[in-house]
Amino acid sequence: MDPIADMITNINNAQAVAKKQIAVFPYSNFKFSILELLKKEGFIEDAQKKGRLSTKKIMVDLKYDEEGKPAITKMRKISKQGQRIYAAAAELRPVRSGYGVSIISTSKGLMTNKEARKKKLGGEIICELW
Questions:
Q1: What is the rounded CA–CA span in Å between residue 58 and residue 48?
Q2: pTM
Q3: What whole-number distance in Å separates Cα of residue 52 and Cα of residue 95?
Q4: Please, are residues 41 and 112 in contact by the beta-carbon 8 Å criterion?
Q5: Cβ(4)–Cβ(30) below 8 Å
Q6: What CATH code would you report for 78-129?
Q7: Interhelix angle for 3-16 vs 29-41, to 10°?
Q8: Cα-based distances in Å from 8 to 12, 38, 53, 59, 76
Q9: For the segment 75-118, what is each residue's pLDDT rounded down to a tens digit?
Q10: Is the CB of residue 32 less than 8 Å from the CB of residue 47?
Q11: Any idea where the domains of the chain sit in the sequence?
Q12: Which fold has domain 3-62?
């Protein structure tokens, strides 16, 4: 199965039952980059590397508002293993009328759809969340 899809499912399920922290494993730099981007955008509290070698994992602190509502309402994978989805900079559209974010893998690294449009970069659309 797709490890990025597993991570997205773990986050969705954990937020549905209001868990404070989850462990994402096995560790990969790509997963950690996605989580760092989510942290920068304010969707999660923190992401930390834990362990060594084969036991290395990522601990993710999920974010909730004062009423206990999760910061991420829904997260879904766009580009899948069987069908990769690419978009040019001009084709990148706002997610949920600008309330959501999509994560794009560009030649300059991972970035949000807003950053990619500003820098006029296209790439593979990894996921979107709102």
A1: 5
A2: 0.93
A3: 37
A4: yes
A5: yes
A6: 3.30.1490.10
A7: 40
A8: 6, 12, 23, 14, 7
A9: 999 999 999 999 999 999 999 999 999 999 999 999 999 999 99
A10: yes
A11: 3-62, 78-129
A12: Ribosomal Protein S8; Chain: A, domain 1 (3.30.1370)
